[in-house]
Amino acid sequence: MTTTTSPATVEEREAILSAVREYADTELAPFATERDEKHIFPREALHRGGELGLGGIYVREESGGTGLGRVDTVAIFEELAQGDPTLAAYISIHNMVAWMIDTYGDDAQRARWLPDLVEMAEFGSYCLTEPGAGSDAAAITTSARRDGDEYEITGVKQFISGAGEAGVYVVMARTGEASSGARGISAFLVPADSPGLSFGALEKKMGWHAQPTRQVILDGVRVPASAMLGDEGQGFAIAMSALNGGRLNIAACSLGGAQWALDRAVQYVQERVAFGDPLAEKQSILFTVADMRTELQAARLMVRDGAQAVDDHAPDATMRCAMAKRFATDAAFDIANRALQLHGGYGYLQDYGIERVVRDLRVHQILEGTNEIMRLIVGREMLRPAGSASMRSGS
Ligand SMILES: Cc1cc2nc3c(=O)[nH]c(=O)nc-3n(C[C@H](O)[C@H](O)[C@H](O)COP(=O)(O)OP(=O)(O)OC[C@H]3O[C@@H](n4cnc5c(N)ncnc54)[C@H](O)[C@@H]3O)c2cc1C
To answer: Closest Cα to atom 35, ligand 1: which residue?
Structure first.
């Protein structure tokens, strides 16, 4: 997998997906219920995914990554999520971090972090959200003050996936005045062992139990000036550009979870007898699964369209990724929820796994930008005068 270049040929793509499917079938699916129940973050199983190339799926080959394009990447995330949507989603966030370092880092930053990140011997976290700044991410107040050859970073990051487990934190912090908005934000690579860096308690969540979510607390954390990713003032644009891929990946994770739930439902309605016949013989049930399959396919095509837009560096890529994320995460949650309904009371039991997938997919409508923010991006892009630049556009 590590030698493949993008776009992969049909044969290469099939070989990659088959290896990913085997990984999902052996390392993720059999343990998904236990990891959910016991809140286990499986570092070793993820590391074995790193050996397959899953830690740097769209990191360039010359940087040690797998070098695939986004159309191939979303197909991989869909396969992974059929094994476990929560861990697939964490691998997505980790890949965002690796891609940011590959794309915006200098040689020294790439050499320091990418080998371990690509192999998932080390993990990455993306730190944008704060207690007072979620959707309005340009309002962050975490500050980074220059002091000689160093920056001193102080602030609190909220809801950080992988916090406490990751070895490197990409922290967006304000280097400009409070009034400087998005253009006063810079990105920093903060190692986990930095003095002054600590973590909040494990958040108790509805789903996503197999990966930790915590606050990241920066209390006078000093990093060398060389820890800045990209240029001063470029941090917000870097953070937004990574989100195009992040939104596609999360959408693909939703597709995988929904496909898994739909497959279970199709099997169940053929086996379960009610009023003398299998449920599948009732036309309303048949129509339900037909609609679920149709809506899933429509969502899949939208995700592929967004991925193609990023691969093509299309000027409307951000809008197409936002449309895909909104549509696919809403559709997939609905499909998984209908799969639960088709199982009747059994769908509500932990043993069948469907309730876990419903819980896990719910947050995909909230993070990487809520689905309301996706509508804002699409609507604003539609109304934007032709030729004017958007801070949110990226690749
Ligand atoms: C489990 C989990 C993991 C996460 N992981 C990470 C991570 O790794 N890194 C990270 O940086 N962040 C992470 N997040 C944060 C996530 O991205 C934010 O929760 C999300 O962006 C929403 O921000 P908020 O929670 O502050 O909600 P708010 O921004 O306060 O929004 C509240 C509601 O108002 C709506 N709203 C807000 N503004 C508008 C508007 N202008 N028009 C219409 N509606 C609006 C929202 O859509 C939402 O419904 C994670 C969140 C969760 C729950």
So the answer is: 372
What pLDDT, on the 0 to 100 scale, is given for residue 387? 67
Output the six-digit token pair for 337: 């929820």
pLDDT tens, residue by residue, 248-276: 999 999 999 999 999 999 999 999 999 99
Ligand 1 pocket check for 159: Cβ under 6 Å = yes
Domain span at 201: 125-233
Would you say residue 395 lies in a domain?
A: no
Spell out the residues 6+ positions from residue 109 whose beta carbon is closer than 8 angstroms to its own: 101, 189, 226, 227, 229
For residue 78, indicate whether it is catalytic. Answer: no
The answer to whether the CB of 366 is under 6 A from ligand 1 is: yes
| Residue closest by Cα to atom 31 of ligand 1 | 135
Q: What is the CATH number of the domain that holds 162?
A: 2.40.110.10
Residue 192 burial by CB count (10 A; 0-12/13-18/19+): exposed, middle or buried? Answer: middle
| Chain position carrying tokens 């396919």 | 297
Ligand 1 atom closest to the CA of 133, numbered from 1: 26
pTM for this entry: 0.96
In tens, the pLDDT along 22-69 reads: 999 999 999 999 999 999 999 999 999 999 999 999 999 999 999 999
Give the active site residue among 27, 165, 368, 381.
Answer: 368
Closest by alpha carbon to 191, among 211, 170, 217, 212?
170
Tell me the pLDDT of the chain averaged across its residues: 95
Same domain, 187 and 206: yes
